[in-house]
Design goal:
By secondary structure, the protein is an all-alpha fold. The chain contains 15 helices and 2 strands. The protein has a two-stranded antiparallel ribbon. Helix 1 packs across helix 4, helix 9 crosses helix 14 and helix 11 packs antiparallel against helix 13. The mean pLDDT is about 90. It comes from Streptomyces dubilierae. Its EC number is 4.2.3.-.
Length: about 350
C-alpha cells in the first residue's frame, strides 16, 4: 500500500511471509483492556486511550497464532506496557532528553523485571512487576531469565537514544542500526515467543550464530518498518529525530524521498538475507527451534499487518481513531537484490558470513 507523506511517496512493502492471527484475539483483547484500566499505569483517560489504541493483542496475536489464551494475554500485556512506557518515559516524556534521570528510572524498572519485591514510585513499575509475575507462573526459569536479559538490552538501547537526543547528536548509519537493534524493543518482544508458545529452545540452538543472526535481522526489519509506519505522524507533528530517514539524510546528504528509497532497499536486502539463511537453518531444526523460527517469520509479517492499520501510527489528532480494517497491498519484488553486507554498516556485516551455522 503506497501512501503520501507531505509529497513523499512511501512504497509498498515486500514481505513474502505467511500471515496468521490468533483466532480469539478480539476476546483476549477485551481482557487486556480491562487489566490495563485496573493497572494504574495510565495517568489520564487520554493516556489510557492511546495505550489501548496500540491494539497490542492484535499485534502479538500475529506473532503467536497458536498460543494458549492466557499466555497470549500475558505477553500482550507487556507489549501494551512497553508502548505506554515508551511514549511516557522514552520518546516524548520529560526524561526523553535527560539521560541521568532516565538511567536511574531504567535501573529501577529493570530491577522490578527481575525481583518481585523491587520498589519504585513510578506508576509503570508496579504494572511491570505484575506482568512478570504472570510470566513466572507460565514460563520456565530459563524463559523468564531470557526475557529479563532481553529487557535489559532494550533499556540500554533506549538509554543510548536518550543520550543522543540530549546532545543533539545524529548517529551515523552503523551506530544507528546497532542502537536500533536494542532500542526498538525487539529483543524482549521476540524473547516472549518461548513464554507464549510454551516451548523452551535449547541453548545450543538459541545461541547458535545463525539463529542469533536471524533474530537480529528480524528485529531490524521490523524496526525499519516501524520507522516507515511512524513517519506520517512524526512529520505531521514535526517530531522526527533519530530514524532511518534522518540518519540517511544526514550521513549521505539525501532528500527525504531519496532517504525513503535508500532505506527501503537496505531493509529489503536484510529481509532477503533473512529468508536465505532461514531456509538453510529450518530443515534441521528441532520442534522448539522450529516454533521459534516460525515466530520470527510471523513477527515480521504481523508487525506490518498491524502497523499499516493501527491508530498508534495513523491517528494524527489528540485522541486515537478507530482501528482500520483495510486490505493491504504488498510489493511483488524486493527493491534491492544486491547480495553481501550493507555499505557503511560493519557491525552487522557478520550476518552475511558464509560459515554461519
Amino acid at each position: 500500500m503506497g501512501s503520501r507523506v507531505s509529497e513523499v511517496e512511501l512504497p509498498p512493502l515486500f514481505c513474502p511471509l505467511e500471515s496468521a492471527v490468533h483466532p480469539r484475539a478480539r476476546q483476549i483483547e477485551k481482557r487486556a483492556e480491562e487489566w490495563i484500566a485496573r493497572s494504574g499505569m495510565c495517568a489520564s483517560e487520554e493516556e489510557l486511550a492511546w495505550v489501548v489504541a496500540t491494539h497490542s493483542t492484535d499485534f502479538y496475536a500475529r506473532f503467536v497464532p497458536d498460543a494458549d489464551d492466557d499466555r497470549l494475554l500475558a505477553t500482550a500485556l507487556w507489549v501494551y506496557w512497553g508502548f505506554g512506557f515508551d511514549d511516557a518515559r522514552c520518546d516524548r516524556g520529560p526524561l526523553s532528553t535527560r539521560p541521568a534521570q532516565f538511567n536511574a528510572l531504567a535501573c529501577q524498572v529493570q530491577r522490578a523485571c527481575e525481583n518481585d519485591t523491587a520498589a519504585g514510585a513510578d506508576r509503570y513499575i508496579g504494572a511491570l512487576r505484575d506482568i512478570v509475575r504472570l510470566f513466572r507462573s507460565l514460563g520456565t526459569p530459563a524463559q523468564v531469565g531470557r526475557f529479563a536479559h532481553a529487557h535489559r538490552a532494550w533499556l540500554s538501547g533506549v538509554a543510548w537514544q536518550v543520550g543522543n537526543q540530549a546532545l543533539g547528536r545524529m548517529p551515523g548509519l552503523n551506530d544507528f542500526l546497532t542502537m536500533r537493534l536494542l532500542s526498538a524493543g525487539g529483543e524482549p518482544t521476540f524473547a516472549m515467543l518461548e513464554i507464549a508458545d510454551g516451548a523452551e529452545v535449547p541453548d545450543r540452538d538459541l545461541y547458535r550464530p545463525a539463529v542469533r543472526a536471524l533474530k537480529e535481522m528480524a528485529i531490524l526489519v521490523a524496526a525499519l518498518d516501524n520507522d516507515r509506519h511512524s513517519l506520517p505522524k512524526e512529520r505531521a507533528r514535526d517530531q522526527a529525530d533519530q530514524n532511518i530517514y534522518t540518519v540517511l539524510m544526514h550521513e549521505r546528504d539525501l532528500t527525504l524521498q531519496q532517504a525513503v528509497e535508500a532505506a527501503n532497499g537496505l531493509r529489503d536486502r536484510v529481509l532477503l538475507r533473512f529468508l536465505r539463511l532461514h531456509d538453510r537453518v529450518r530443515p534441521t531444526a528441532g520442534p522448539e527451534l522450529a516454533a521459534y523460527l516460525r515466530g520470527l517469520r510471523h513477527g515480521i509479517r504481523g508487525n506490518n499487518e498491524w502497523g499499516l492499520r493501527v491508530p498508534r501510527y495513523l491517528s494524527l489528532g489528540r485522541w486515537p481513531d478507530a482501528m482500520e480494517d483495510t486490505a493491504l497491498t504488498w510489493a511483488q519484488e524486493p527493491s534491492d537484490t544486491r547480495p553481501g553486507p550493507l555499505e557503511g554498516a560493519p557491525d552487522v556485516a557478520w550476518w552475511w558470513d558464509d560459515d554461519l551455522a
